[in-house]
Design goal:
ABC transporter transmembrane region fold; Rossmann fold; 2 domains; five-stranded parallel sheet; four-stranded mixed sheet; 16 helices; 9 strands; about 10% strand; elongated
């Protein structure tokens, strides 16, 4: 999918045009600098010099410096504008692929790894690979422009220094590339483990604190932190250290070159102005070479996360689970299943399930843990594809799912319900809340639900989810252990409302409680 996402043609055009214009300005800048140094050894066309003198050499140089500053800043902004615009597009596509993929393919990846992909690996891909590739292209063009300017000024012999530095840089780059590949894979593996551990820590914090698992979690995480820190130190050191090697060799080369020239006698001695120009040009070339080395190593370091992105995205397939569900026309039934089966890792959890459900049915689905209750509902909804058998369902039926731990966005209570049904008014919401025993919430339409509903108790979440279902009025309502957090009084209110408001819907009620069965006209007990 990453390869299918392309940078817009307009952005590519701007980037190339900006790069080429930057090259022209660089060549002009270095040529003017050589003239200002006034070296007799730097030969220019007399007509060119006369033109510059008429216009005002210093004025042109000042204008060029300002233009160069502005263009460099624009080019840096453009690179990051393109890069982080692509990051936004990539993350949107990651979320889109997840929502539109079938449930089974997501389970192969897991929540921890997909969190890494959306939050971390996508950013590493853009920062380490995409941005660095654009920086390498830009730095290489600037290196060529400085080299070209030096050749114009002093002849082909000046290439010796630059070529020597490039050879040193390439030796350093290629000798380290496999190390970066190995370290990158290590970072990815450790980050996945850390995400899983952190997810467990946040999800089960109460159990960890009460059951005294904290020390074990700390010990495990601390070991991962140490390994990540150690690997990152290696990466950063090997990115920066070659710079000092390049600088040292450059200055040693200059020193020996000067000794050789001066030992040849005063007639062949290089002028101070020319030597100054070479030194200044070298000081510009060295950072460019260093930046290219760091950028290339950054590309190598980013290959691990990029590879995981590609692998995980290849596991996500467009949700075609609805394609196996046959259309049910001219029938009073909403859903019909004939001899369906489903397996996890070659272990069959559902076999030969046949059932028929109509509008107004409230189906009590019960059974011990792991017996296939939730899997059966996933099959009914089209989230999973049966290994055999057929499912028939009426077309264009909207569904609403209420889980044991309902999800709530970070919003106030009125905005939450408006998101579900834009036409609903607060007075109607308030009446339902009062009748469900949520009087305090009914009096404050600006009440903030908190992140994930953190400002609600477990019972409030389940009752609020029922209120949401009443407002949505789905044709198929799934209640997955939604009375588990309710006392007997609240449970009775909950059940009465299900009977009252969903007579025109198919209700699939997963519950261990026998009290839930009192309102149900059909039962489905697992294992079959």
């Amino acid at each position: 999918m990453i390869k299918q996402l392309e940078i817009q043609f307009k952005e590519k055009l701007f980037f190339i045009a900006s790069s080429l214009f930057l090259v022209l300005v660089e060549v002009f800048f270095w040529s003017q600098l050589a003239i200002l140094l006034g070296s007799e050894d730097l030969n220019f066309s007399q007509n060119f010099l006369d033109l510059l003198n008429r216009i005002g050499l210093v004025n042109i140089f000042i204008f060029t410096v300002i233009l160069r500053f502005m263009l460099n800043n624009f080019h840096v902004w453009l690179i990051h504008h393109i890069g982080f615009g692509f990051l936004k597009k990539l993350r949107n596509n990651l979320g889109h692929s997840l929502i539109n993929s079938n449930f089974e393919s997501y389970e192969k990846i897991g929540k921890g790894r997909y969190t890494s992909n959306i939050v971390t690996n996508s950013a590493i891909y853009v920062d380490s690979i995409l941005l660095n590739k654009m920086k390498i292209f830009t730095d290489f063009l600037q290196l060529l422009s400085v080299t070209f300017a030096v050749i114009i000024v002093s002849g082909i012999q000046s290439l010796i220094i630059i070529v020597t530095l490039l050879i040193i840089a390439f030796i350093g780059i290629f000798s380290l590339r496999n190390l970066f590949k190995k370290w990158s894979a290590t970072i990815v593996d450790l980050t996945n483990k850390l995400n899983k551990s952190t997810d467990y820590l946040l999800f089960a914090l109460k159990e960890i604190k009460v059951n005294n698992f904290g020390d074990e979690i700390k010990k495990f995480n601390s070991a991962i932190y140490s390994k990540i820190s150690r690997t990152q130190i290696f990466i950063r050191f090997t990115q920066i250290s070659p710079r000092f090697a390049v600088e040292t060799l450059f200055y040693l080369f200059i020193g020996f070159y000067m000794m050789k020239i001066f030992s040849a006698g005063s007639d062949n001695a290089i002028s101070l102005a020319a030597l100054s120009f070479y030194l200044v040009a070298g000081m510009r070339v060295m950072p460019l070479i260093n930046q290219m080395m760091i950028a290339y190593n950054g590309v190598r370091a980013g290959e691990g996360p990029a590879r995981q992105l590609e692998i995980d995205l290849s596991l996500l397939h467009e949700d075609d689970n609805q394609s196996h569900i046959k259309s049910l026309d001219n029938s009073e039934n909403v859903l019909i299943c004939k001899n369906i089966a489903y397996s996890y890792s070659k272990k069959e959890v559902i076999s030969n399930l046949s059932c028929e459900f109509s509008t107004g049915d409230i189906v009590h689905i019960s059974g011990k843990s792991g017996s296939g209750k939730t899997t059966a509902v996933d099959l009914f909804l089209g989230l999973r594809k049966p290994s055999k058998g057929k499912i028939y369902k009426r077309k264009n039926l909207d569904s609403f799912y209420v889980s044991q731990h309902p999800f709530f966005p970070s919003a106030n209570i009125e905005d939450y319900f408006k998101t579900l049904n834009p036409t609903v008014v607060w007075e109607d919401i308030s009446q339902i809340l009062i009748s469900l025993g949520l009087k305090d919430l009914s009096q404050n339409q600006d009440y903030y639900l908190g992140e994930g509903g953190s400002n609600l108790s477990g019972g409030q979440r389940q009752l609020l989810s029922l209120c949401a279902a009443i407002i949505v009025k789905p044709k198929i309502l799934v209640l997955d252990e939604t009375t588990s957090g309710l006392d007997a009084k609240s449970e009775k209110i909950f059940l009465d409302y299900v009977s009252k408001y969903f007579s025109e819907s198919l209700v699939l009620f997963i519950s261990h409680r026998e009290s839930s069965a009192t309102i149900c006209n059909k039962k489905l007990k697992f294992p079959l």
